[in-house]
Design a protein that fits this description.
152 residues; mainly alpha
């Protein structure tokens, strides 16, 4: 195998490494459920999200890219498959959400559009940091794959 291939395997293995504590399911749920849920809502009913994107002065591409990023991060985190990568994607997604919270004047949004509470992205960021630092935990696909590969 080439040095480049070994290097890529090493990176993939490190990104799937995880602590074995079962409590890590909690931050996965805290981050993954809102990410996947809001991502689906933003994708399927984009009217309110479009108003927020425009009010924040974000590019129109965010209308599709942000929900897809949220959904992908949520799926990776909830499944515990490449949890750390999912955590990094969650942090990127929530950086955009926090930016929007700080630049949007809610009074300028249409009456039908309600911004989520600022605590939501803050809590998702905190849970994402735990996931990036420690991995998906005992009940993650990462742990299951690590066990299988160590037995092989």
């Amino acid at each position: 195998m080439s040095s480049k291939g070994e290097s890529m395997n090493s990176i993939l293995n490190r990104s799937r490494s995880t602590q074995k504590q079962g409590w890590l399911l909690l931050p996965r749920l805290v981050a993954g459920v809102p990410l996947a849920g809001l991502g689906m809502m933003h994708l399927l009913k984009p009217e309110a999200f479009k108003a927020m994107i425009q009010a924040a002065g974000m590019p129109q591409a965010s209308l599709i890219a942000a929900p897809l990023l949220e959904i992908l991060a949520g799926i990776l985190i909830l499944s515990g498959f490449f949890s750390r990568i999912g955590g990094i994607l969650a942090l990127a997604s929530m950086a955009g959400a926090l930016y929007a919270h700080f630049v949007i004047n809610p009074d300028l949004l249409p009456a039908t559009v309600e911004m989520p509470p600022i605590m939501l992205p803050i809590v998702v960021v905190l849970a994402g940091l735990v996931i990036v630092a420690l991995g998906g935990g005992r009940w993650s696909l990462d742990e299951k794959f690590n066990r299988i590969s160590s037995n092989a």
